[in-house]
């Protein structure tokens, strides 16, 4: 460094103060020398000589050593900056800088090794390298942001931090930013978490999964074989279950004659999902002369915070599987419920012991309360209202005030409501709206929910939260959503209708009560409508319930005349049948007009039933546009489970009768969604 350059460099800060300290002391000594002169001239002269020598030495020393000192300082600063730059360049962590638009403007050696081709990303958007990262994900403030991403078969955590250029510019004497300058860079680091994720995944794979296996129809299956074959049938079932779970290193223990406990690793569960729980079909294939195939229900719980919580999830799952009709697997986690199977037709039990037990429990619950509310699903139908009328009759026989919660009466239901209002004992406050019921509900009130088990689609969901005692009576298969903490739950998917269930219950209230003919008409109408004049989903108990109602004065002719169609509705149904599209040779899809029709959803359901009369049709789907929604009515006979199809679309129902509602869409778009769902389920073997 030459002398001219040296003169342009100036020291700053603490180093400058340190080097100038001798000069400052010389100035102070000058003032002391003047003070000494006022005391003693001879002493002042001596001190002046010393001061002169001191100042000459200090000035000569500083002038001679400053160039070398400045050279050393400049050299140190240069080497220090180079060291910092080299360390950052050779940092073991992949590191790069981006401008405001997300364009890569600098990268260190490790990042170059990661991307292999430097020119692939240099001065290009980071999105070209990491598709998960776009400009919107760059940090908006100085705070650190993190995103997981994958690259070259490895897992990384990307950390990005915003670095303002204005503050950096203020540190430089050569750059002076404007007041409104807000430029910035984004510093990014990549942390390799592949090994950590593999370790966490392995721990997760080894976590405990608990399962329960119930034989749905153990007693009926055993009764269908001779006594000598019963032990053999049981042994075959045990063997299938043990072999199936033994192949994945699972532990199986038989807790009762028809129940098993299963413990396995989570990784093993993935194998069972891949083969769609083949055990369900394997057990149904057991045939040693038994007339009835054996079906299983499997409930599995996992991902709980503790082993006991997994066990509780498994119990909830097996209850849900049984409530949905059995012959299926239900997997429950804290965030989701998954279903497999459920293709078999639910078998009706001929015994009415369960109905008697439930009736007695219902009698005790109602007797202990002051007031009873009964409600069905939103847009109430004949079955829902008829069952509510039956519960009202039971409550009256127990001397309890009962109200039916009904917000709107559809045109298809109006004839039945008008008939019920002609009942001699009908009171003006018998039928209330949901808001009126909320005002009357107290802690001493029991709520009976009929023909529905989903709280969200009841007439008044708020009433469920207000009533402490809740009773559920339904014949639909249970879905993910259910009424929690019900005092009494009686859900029987084999039943043809809620009216059938209520008709059975009435025969055990106070040992059997005599009902009026109008009440019998309401219940009989619900059975007739839901069974399509006793042509679908009817069993022995259906006809027994109908016989009970006929003995109590149900008028078949009056019920039939009540639900006759007008010419416009009949024509709309005929048009829906005529314009049906046969999809995949097995499914009929059509659309029913709603303009001018009083109850378009009812017409759509009737059209779907009619389409099943076409030879070769396994399932029918009729759509209608009503009240801003697309309603889908799905029907089948016995070859296809339309419930699991409708559940994919957010609906539900029975194996043979189901439906769904789609919002914010058109009929054409809804048809396309339905077809895509059918294609996917056929491809995956779900139907």
Describe the structure.
- The protein is of the alpha/beta class and 687 residues long.
- Helix content is 44%, strand content 19%.
- The protein is built from 24 helices and 23 strands.
- Strands 7-8-6-9-10-11 form a 6-stranded mixed β-sheet. Strands 14-13-12-15-16-17 form a 6-stranded parallel β-sheet.
- A hairpin with a 3-residue loop joins strand 22 (652-653) and strand 23 (657-663).
- Helix 17 runs antiparallel to helix 18 (517-530) and helix 21 (567-578) crosses helix 22.
Strand content: 15-25%
Low-confidence stretches: 1-6, 169-177
Task: Tell the overall outline.
Answer: elongated
Number of strand elements: 23
Mean pLDDT: 83
Name the assembly state: single chain
Radius of gyration: 41 Å
| Major sheet strand order | 7-8-6-9-10-11
| Category by helix and strand content | alpha/beta
Largest sheet: 6 strands, mixed
Q: Into which percent range does the helicity of residues fall? A: 40-55%
Q: What is the count of helical runs?
A: 24
The N- to C-terminal Cα distance equals 87 Å
């Amino acid at each position: 460094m030459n002398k001219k350059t040296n003169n342009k460099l100036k020291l700053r800060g603490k180093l400058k103060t340190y080097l100038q300290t001798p000069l400052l002391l010389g100035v102070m000594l000058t003032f002391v020398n003047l003070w000494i002169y006022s005391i003693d001239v001879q002493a002042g002269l001596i001190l002046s000589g010393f001061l002169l020598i001191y100042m000459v030495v200090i000035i000569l020393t500083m002038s001679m050593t400053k160039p070398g000192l400045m050279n050393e300082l400049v050299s140190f600063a240069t080497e220090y900056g180079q060291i910092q730059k080299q360390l950052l360049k050779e940092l073991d962590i992949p590191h790069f800088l981006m401008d405001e638009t997300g364009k890569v403007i600098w990268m260190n050696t490790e990042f170059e090794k990661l991307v292999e081709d430097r020119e692939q990303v240099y001065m290009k958007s980071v999105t070209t390298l990491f598709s998960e990262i776009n400009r919107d994900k760059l940090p908006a403030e100085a705070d650190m942001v993190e995103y997981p991403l994958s690259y070259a078969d490895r897992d990384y955590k990307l950390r990005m931090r915003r670095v303002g250029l204005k503050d950096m510019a203020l540190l430089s004497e050569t750059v002076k930013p404007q007041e409104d300058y807000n430029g910035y860079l984004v510093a990014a680091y990549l942390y390799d978490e592949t090994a950590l994720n593999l370790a966490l995944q392995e721990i997760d794979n080894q976590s405990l999964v608990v399962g329960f296996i119930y034989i749905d129809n153990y007693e009926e299956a055993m009764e269908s074989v001779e006594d000598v074959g019963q032990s053999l049938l049981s042994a075959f079932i045990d063997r299938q279950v043990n072999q199936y779970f033994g192949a994945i290193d699972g532990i199986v223990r038989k807790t009762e004659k028809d129940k098993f406990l299963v413990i396995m690793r989570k990784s093993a569960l993935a194998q069972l999902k891949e083969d769609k729980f083949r055990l369900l079909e394997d057990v149904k294939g057991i045939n040693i002369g038994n007339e009835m195939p054996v079906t299983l229900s499997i409930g599995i719980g996992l991902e709980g915070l503790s082993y006991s919580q997994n066990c509780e999830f498994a119990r909830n799952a097996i209850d849900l599987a049984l409530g949905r009709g059995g012959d299926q697997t239900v997997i429950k986690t804290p965030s989701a419920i998954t279903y497999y199977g459920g293709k078999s037709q639910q078998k009706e039990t001929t015994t009415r012991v369960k109905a008697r037990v439930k009736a007695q429990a219902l009698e005790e619950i109602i007797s202990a309360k002051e007031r009873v509310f009964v409600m069905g699903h939103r847009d109430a139908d004949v079955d829902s209202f008829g069952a509510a009328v039956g519960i009202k009759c039971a409550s009256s026989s127990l001397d309890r005030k009962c109200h039916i919660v009904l917000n709107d009466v559809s045109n298809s239901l109006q004839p039945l409501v008008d008939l019920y209002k002609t009942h001699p004992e009908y009171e003006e406050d018998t039928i209330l709206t949901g808001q009126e019921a909320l005002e009357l509900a107290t802690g001493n009130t029991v709520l009976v929910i009929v023909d529905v088990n989903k709280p969200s689609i009841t007439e008044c969901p708020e009433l469920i939260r207000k009533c402490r005692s809740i009773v559920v009576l339904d014949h639909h298969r249970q879905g993910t959503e259910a009424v929690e903490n019900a005092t009494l739950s009686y859900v029987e998917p084999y039943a043809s209708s809620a009216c059938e269930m209520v008709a059975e219950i009435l025969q055990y209230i106070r040992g059997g009560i005599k009902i009026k003919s109008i009440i019998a008409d309401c219940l009989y109408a619900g059975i007739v409508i839901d069974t399509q004049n006793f042509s679908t989903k009817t069993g022995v108990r259906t006809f027994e319930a109908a016989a009970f109602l006929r003995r109590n004065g149900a008028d078949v002719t009056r019920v039939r005349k009540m639900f006759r169609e007008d010419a416009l509705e009949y024509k709309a149904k005929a048009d829906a049948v005529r314009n049906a599209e046969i999809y995949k040779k097995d499914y009929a899809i059509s659309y029913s007009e709603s303009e001018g029709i009083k109850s378009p959803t009812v017409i759509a359901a009737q059209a779907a039933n009619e389409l099943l009369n076409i030879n070769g049709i396994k399932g029918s789907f009729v759509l209608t546009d009503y009240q801003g929604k697309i309603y889908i009515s799905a029907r089948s006979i016995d070859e296809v489970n339309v419930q699991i199809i409708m559940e994919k679309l957010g609906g539900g129902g029975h194996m043979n009768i189901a439906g769904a509602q789609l919002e914010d869409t058109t009929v054409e778009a809804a048809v396309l969604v339905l077809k895509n769902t059918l294609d996917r389920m056929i491809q995956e073997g779900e139907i």
